[in-house]
Amino acid sequence: QQNWWYDGRRDVHASTKAAVKYLKSLHRSFEGDWLLALAAYNSGQGTVHKAMSRNRRKGLGVDFWSLTLPPETASYVPKLIGVAEVIANPNRYGIDLVNIQDRPALKKVAVDAQIDMAIAADLANMSIDELYRLNPGFNRWATAPDGPHYLMIPADKAGEFEEKLAHLPPEKRLKWIRYSVKKNETLGHLALRYGTSAKHIREANELRNDAIRVGQKLIIPVASQQLERYELTMSQRKRAIKNRGNGKNRLSYKVRAGDSLWRIARQFGVSVHQLARWNGMAPNDTLQINETLAIYPNQNGKIATAKSLQSVGPAETRSVQRVYYKVRRGDSLYLIAKRFQVEVAELKEWNKLHNRKYLQPGQVLKLYVDVTEVSDRS
C-alpha cells in the first residue's frame, strides 16, 4: 500500500511480512530449492527461469551454481551463505557475537485511528525521531487516516503507551483548526499550507468535490508541533538527502509532465538508482510535476545539458529546465546552440536530427538549458 500518508515498503512490520510471504512463494515455485528462491528474490523470478531454460537447451545443470546470472545475484547468494555460516559457527571464524536475548524488542500496538506522531511519541515517552525510526512507513506528521492503524513501540514502553492511549479522548488525537476560506484559495493550497491532503480536508468536511467558496468555514487537521519538528517525515527526509551533497556539481531539475526517473537519469547520464538515492526515493517511485530533483552528474560521463553546467563550482546550484524553441527563418543549429549556450551535438541528440542538415521555419526544437545562465531568450 502506497499513498500520500503511508508507504508500506518502508513499514518494518508490513515489509517484513511481504518479504517472507514472497520468499515462501518463490521456495514453492522452485520446488523447495532455497538457493534458486534467493536468486529469484534478488534478480526476479523471470530472470532465474530464463537462465534455467537456457541451460536446459544446452544440456547443462539447472541448480544455482550452474546458472549464468547477473553478477550481483551471482554474489548475493554466496554472501548470504557466508553470513549464515559465520553466525552459526562464530568461534570457527574468530568472531565474538554479542549475546542477544531471544525476546521481541518491539510490539505492534493498535491505535485504532489516525494520531499525530508527536502526540504518540509523547504517550510512549519517546522522541519524535525515535518513533519515526521505528515507523518509517508513515510519511507525514500523523499516521494515515485510512490506516494501517498501528505503531511499532519498544516492548518495554508498549504497556505505558497502551494505557495512556486508552485514556486519550478521540478529539485529542489530532489538533484541528477552524478556517475561513479566502479569495483564490483552493483545497490544494490549504493542504500544502497545513501539511495535509486535499482528500483529508474534503472528507473531514464531508465535501462532495474540491470546490470551495470564499467565506466557507472548514475544519482542518494540523500538526501539534511545527512541521520542522517532524524531521523524519518523507518530505523532511528527502530535503535532508537532497541538501547533503557529495562534492560534485549539484544541479536542480524541475519535473515536467511526462518525466520519469528513467528519462531524467538517461538525460543526465546517470543511473536510475543513483538518481533515486540522491533524492531519497525508490527507483519505481512516481514523480510529481514541479517537484525539484537534485542531480550530481558524472563528470567523466556525458552530461546531456548545457555546456556551462560542466564548469559549475561545487558550491553552486543550477536549475535545468526543458524549453521549446520554434525555428525562425535564417536560424541554424549553430546559431540556436550558441544562443542557448549548448552544443550542436546536444541539440541534435535531443531532437533526433542526426541525418538532417537543414531546419524548417516553424519546426519546434526541444532544449535542456540552464535557466540561471540563459534568460529572456525568445
Short description:
The protein is of the alpha+beta class and 378 residues long. It contains 14 helices and 8 strands. Among the domains are: 175-223, LysM domain (Membrane-bound Lytic Murein Transglycosylase D, Chain A), CATH 3.10.350; 243-370, Membrane-bound Lytic Murein Transglycosylase D, Chain A (Roll).
Chart the SSEs and their pairings:
Layout: H1 12-29, H2 34-43, H3 45-57, H4 71-88, E1 106-110, H5 117-123, H6 128-134, E2 150-154, H7 155-166, E3 175-180, H8 187-194, H9 198-204, E4 217-222, H10 234-242, E5 250-254, H11 261-268, H12 272-278, E6 292-295, E7 317-326, H13 333-339, H14 344-351, E8 364-370
Parallel strand pairs: 5-7
Antiparallel strand pairs: 1-2, 3-4, 5-6, 7-8
Helix pairs in contact: 1-2, 2-3, 2-4, 5-6, 8-9, 11-12
Tell me what the structure shows.
By secondary structure, this protein is α+β, with helices and mostly antiparallel strands. Among the domains are: 175-223, LysM domain (Membrane-bound Lytic Murein Transglycosylase D, Chain A, Roll); 243-370, LysM domain (Membrane-bound Lytic Murein Transglycosylase D, Chain A), CATH 3.10.350. The protein has 14 helices and 8 strands. The strands form 3 sheets. Strands 6-5-7-8 form a 4-stranded mixed sheet. It has a two-stranded antiparallel sheet with strand order 1-2. The two termini are 46 Å apart.
Indicate the low-confidence ranges by residue numbers: 299-319, 371-378
Task: Report mean pLDDT, rounded to a whole number.
Answer: 80
- Through-space gap between termini: 46 Å
How much beta, percentage-wise?
A: 5-15%
Rough outline = flat
CATH class division of the domain at 243-370:
Alpha Beta
N-to-C SSE string, H for helix and E for strand: HHHHEHHEHEHHEHEHHEEHHE
- Per DSSP E runs of 2 or more residues, the count of β-strands stands at 8
Radius of gyration over all CA atoms, rounded: 27 Å
Biggest sheet, strands in spatial order? Answer: 6-5-7-8
Question: Can you tell me the CATH topology of the domain at 243-370?
Answer: Membrane-bound Lytic Murein Transglycosylase D, Chain A
- Provide a count of the helices: 14
Q: Which structural class should the secondary elements be placed in?
A: alpha+beta
Query: Helical residue percent?
Result: 25-40%
Corresponding CATH superfamily of the domain at 243-370: LysM domain
CATH architecture descriptor name of the domain at 243-370: Roll
Major sheet: 4 strands, mixed
